[in-house]
Amino acid sequence: MTAVPLGIPAIPPRGFGNISATESFPDAAPQHLANGQLRANLRHATHTIRDKRLRVVSELPDWEELREAGSAIKAEAMERLPELLAQFEEQFTARGGTVHWARDADEANAIVEGLLREREATEVVKVKSMATQEIGLNEHLEERGIAAYETDLAELIVQLGHDKPSHILVPAIHRNRTEIRDIFLAEMPGVDPELTDEPRRLAMAARAHLRAKFLSAKVAISGANFGIAETGTLGVVESEGNGRMCLTLPETLITVMGIEKVLPRAEDLGVFMQLLPRSSTGERMNPYTSLWTGAMPGDGPSDVHVILLDNGRTRALADRHGRSALHCIRCSACMNVCPVYERTGGHAYGSTYPGPIGAILSPLLTGVEAEENNSLPYASSLCGACFDACPVKINIPEILVHLRGEDVESRRGAKRLPSQMDLAMKGASWALSDGAHLGLLERGLPLGRAAAGRDGKISKLPGLGAGWTQSRDIPAPPAESFRQQWKKRGKADPQKNETPATEGEAQ
């Protein structure tokens, strides 16, 4: 199939699927913050993964060099994206595969459905895939009478629980093992009614449930961690081996891959096979890494397809300040160190992509002006822990600030009337540009003290300041500024930038 042109900016998608939130982060977060069990589950899981990661990363003396290499490879891939995608299509097709191009979630879902109808398939097995979650493929197929069975254990837990993923790597991170046992007892056909919450017993129950699906399904659907332009190779990494069953047993394999997953060369995998497992699961190497190049008679699926998904990615690519968000390798390291995510969980973000990376990726894909996602760039304290943890050095705090600025600009409207924040920033600029200006404002300090209550605090400010005092008090300003006290003591003239002599120095 001929590639669609990758113009920049791209034609806006018609439907984004599950990357558009249904409510804003400030509205969604409080209900999750109030869930004590959720917060306990999240804290235990994120701290466990975080500690494992720190141990295995510290073993590599060249970790920072690996991060630099990963960042450089992804930057090259984004710079050459149209060229690399065309090369990937050529190589994949030459090896017996079929390439399809999808502008958005609607087109991708329609392509998958069409392929299943042609093969008269009424059920499919799935490898864990963020891209299919993003486009809402399971829901699309279910509405049309086609059953999609998740085979990743955590994804299976989420599916049986009629839930949504809360984490990129560990989708059921918000559930503890007792909750998982209860879900299995209620939703898994033929499960032992005496099932306990012992992890081994839970895994055995899931294995027995899935084995029949693996042996009967004629079609499998996968995602892809990487696509190699040089050879037309696709790759999936996973920890359980269930994915490999999907990739080898069915007759037809359909892969949905975001166009940003392409890498220039096969040798580039050497960098990411060190970065990804250490950053995601805290392991030195990935337990199961599956690579396939087209179709091979007598070895695995004979009918192989890949759907190259845009769904806002060329929009993000056109943003020179935010395009590095497309470097993400979906390791979840940023989420495991984020104080905001640890307390709210992934559901508060309302998108397939939660946490710090979701706070920038979702608005970049949909456009920050989209009302559903315009609050996500503010779901951060800008502490910078995510940037330190990111294996490909995505400067998430910098992009968050950029997107906040974009959001402010989008709210001004055609007349571009100055907002309260604009006026406040202009006032601050004037005050801080000259010592005389600052001194003039300091004369109003007594007025600030007069506005304070009997407890010496200001509990309510008007206008823009009301947002601050809704949740915190402001201490009353001092009676005199430091500059005023300094001048009164006669130690120096602040206008001349003099410093007082310390004891023992020549006067």
UniProtKB/TrEMBL annotation:
Q: Where is the 4Fe-4S ferredoxin-type domain?
A: 325-394
Q: Which InterPro entries match?
A: 4Fe4S_Fe-S-bd, 4Fe4S_Fe_S_CS, FTHF_cligase-like_sf, Helical_ferredxn, LUD_dom, LutB/LldF, NagB/RpiA_transferase-like
Q: Which residues form the LUD domain?
A: 85-308
What are the entry keywords? 4Fe-4S, Electron transport, Iron, Iron-sulfur, Metal-binding, Repeat, Transport
Write down the Pfam families for this protein, in alphabetical order: Fer4_8, LUD_dom
Sequence segments annotated as region (Disordered):
461-507
User: Which PROSITE patterns does the UniProt entry name for this protein?
Assistant: 4FE4S_FER_1
Note whether Magnesium occurs among the keywords. no
Top-level taxon in the UniProt lineage: Bacteria
Q: What is this protein called?
A: LutB/LldF family L-lactate oxidation iron-sulfur protein
* Source organism of this protein record: Sinomonas halotolerans
